[in-house]
Amino acid sequence: MDKFSRRALLGAAAATAAVSAVGTPALAAAPQSGKQAPGFYRYMVGSIEITVVNDGVSRMPITEGFVENASKDDVNAALQAAFLEKDFYAGPYNPVVINNGAKLALVDTGTGEQAFKASKGLNGRLPLSLAAAGIDPAAVDAVIISHYHGDHINGLLKADGSLAFPNAEILVPATEHNFWMDDGEMSRATKPRVVFGFKNTRRVFSAEVLKRVRTYDWNKEVIGGVTAIGTPGHTPGHTSHVVSSGAKSIYVQADVTHAPFLFARHPEWHFMLDVEPVAAEATRRKVYDMLVAERMLVQGFHYPFPSVGHVEKSGTGYREVLVNWTPLI
Ligand SMILES: [Zn+2]
């Protein structure tokens, strides 16, 4: 700020103070809200209605090993290049609800009601976002799961362990289910995060949940207009979904990349949560080259809300261009 404008501002502040001192009549300051707006965003894919329902964000300290093949300094440089705080990873969580006119389906569940208390409202916000969007959990016909990491499955249960979506079938990728429910795979797991993943899966997939589970296969329709696409690597059965109606389609990518400001910019980075990092990188490049070539919209679970946009080539990686807000759908 130059001297002139700073002096002008200081003068204005002094004038305001003088007016207050002589006692302006009762115009009380409006109380600050201190609360964020509910996070839901709606759009159409042909005749299919999509509602993005935000579940909050994570806040994870960045340690050496956060990216297996890049240093903490490299990760911090990428965060600062995106104008973000260094040393912490704020990864957004954005499940979507798909209404194809016949079924109301939630894709991935977020971190769960229990996480809301534990994080002091930073995440576990899906029930609030659903309520704000006017979606009753009891009206959800199907929960479609992309993969078995906690931020995608924990919300199947309420804090008391009961079913969060009591009338829903739980549709899971067969390859993913077979991996995480296999005792042999569990006994061979060595990475601590994978070992934890097995424990968490066994906790969430309780007898009540398992009663409602139906597996689905890649390259088949899961519900009308929603096709499962195998995108393995992040987990062995990691699955994306293409939603199509008429001439329109959108790629619901789940965790092909985590937050794009790190992992679309750096497709070569092996995130510590990738179970099979080399396969994850190959999948990421293949999917993103396709998204660029086809100019196809992508809905990214870990993209910043409302987490839908296009991607373009940028340097040695990719850059997301998020959609513009629109008041009418
Ligand atoms: Zn995830």
Molecular structure report:
The protein is of the alpha+beta class. Helices cover 30% and strands 23% of the residues. It has helices at residues 3-21, 72-81, 113-118, 126-132, 150-153, 174-180, 183-188, 192-204, 207-212, 260-263, 277-294; strands at residues 40-45, 48-53, 60-61, 88-89, 96-99, 104-107, 142-144, 169-173, 213-216, 221-223, 226-230, 239-245, 248-254, 297-300, 308-314, 317-322. The strands form three sheets. Strands 1-2-5-6-7-8-9 form a seven-stranded mixed β-sheet. Strands 10-11-12-13-14-15-16 form a seven-stranded mixed β-sheet. Strands 3-4 form a two-stranded antiparallel sheet. The longest helix is centred in the N-terminal third of the chain and has 19 residues, at 3-21. It is globular, with a radius of gyration of 22 Å. The model is unreliable at 16-20 (pLDDT under 50). Residues 149, 151-152, 255, 301-302 line the site of zinc ion (ZN).
Mean pLDDT: 93
How is the biggest beta sheet arranged?
7 strands, mixed
- The structural class is alpha+beta
Tally the helices. Answer: 11
Number of strands: 16
CATH topology: Metallo-beta-lactamase, Chain A
CATH superfamily: Ribonuclease Z/Hydroxyacylglutathione hydrolase-like
Alpha carbon gyration radius:
22 Å
Q: What is the strand content?
A: 15-25%
Number of domains: 1
Helical content, roughly?
A: 25-40%
Side by side, the strands of the main sheet go 1-2-5-6-7-8-9
Based on the structure given, which CATH architecture is correct?
4-Layer Sandwich
Q: Give the SSE order as H and E letters.
A: HEEEHEEEHHEHEHHHHEEEEEHHEEE
Shape by Cα distribution: globular
Identify low-pLDDT runs: 16-20
End-to-end Cα distance: 42 Å
